[in-house]
Amino acid sequence: xxITADGPTLVLSGDFDVRSTGEVRNAVYExxxxxxxxxxTIDLTEVDSIDHTALKVLAVASRFAxxxxxxxxxxxxxxxxxRMLHLSHLIRFFEVxxxxxxA
Length: 103
Fold this sequence. Notes:
STAS_dom, STAS_dom_sf, MlaB_ABC_Transporter, STAS domain-containing protein, five-stranded mixed beta sheet, 5 strands
């Protein structure tokens, strides 16, 4: 898992699964502490695979952010990730950016 920060956005790439949840958790909480804009975006466009444990880590971080007056926005969620969010009922913890409609 590679994690890079680009302003209020955390860009994740690679496999986001039980092996990388600790690293991502630490990065998200640190990013929330440093962010004063009210929202951070987690870009999943370059994530090759994601599991339920990883989504739960993001959901807990989102609840933490909401208690502090912030929010987490997910970007680049492929259909499989959106389906997992809906099936697990974790979708309620996030704002998910819609893909742009090509002209």
